[in-house]
Amino acid sequence: MQDLSWTGDPPEPFAAPEYYRGILARRVLAYWVDLFCIAMLAALAWLVLWVLTIASLGLLSPLLLVLAAIPLLYHTLSIGGPRSATPGMRLTGIEVRSWTGERPSYLQAFVQTVLFYVTVYPTWSLVLLVALFNQRRRTLHDILAGTLVIRQSPAAEVLAVR
User: Between these two residues, 159 and 114, which has the higher pLDDT value?
Assistant: First the structure.
């Protein structure tokens, strides 16, 4: 698969619509897959931590606070990793890029993840409506973190259709 990164400004939606076609529906589906993965990881961690807590007669019970870090680590390590996408994003064919086209660093992935949780949950997800009002379908946490979600290989799909 070829690297479709760009330098400078990101592709314009009207000049390269294949990067943005169906991105919102894919993001929603990807997040539901990721929620399932996070729930499975949290359930496994909860079980292991409770066994450790019982075995230590409660001395290791503060380790249960680690459960709160699972979603943060899941998104940060996935988005900042070599594929720039969570497992749900990979399944739906999308990835995160920095505004200049490079794959996001772990710091940028961390900032995007924190901004996601800080803006989405307190507003009951209403803040995600921002994506309906811009051409690149960027959410508020994308804009503030300097990231962009695009299709993984839009050129391959365009070539396959022809």
Answer: 114
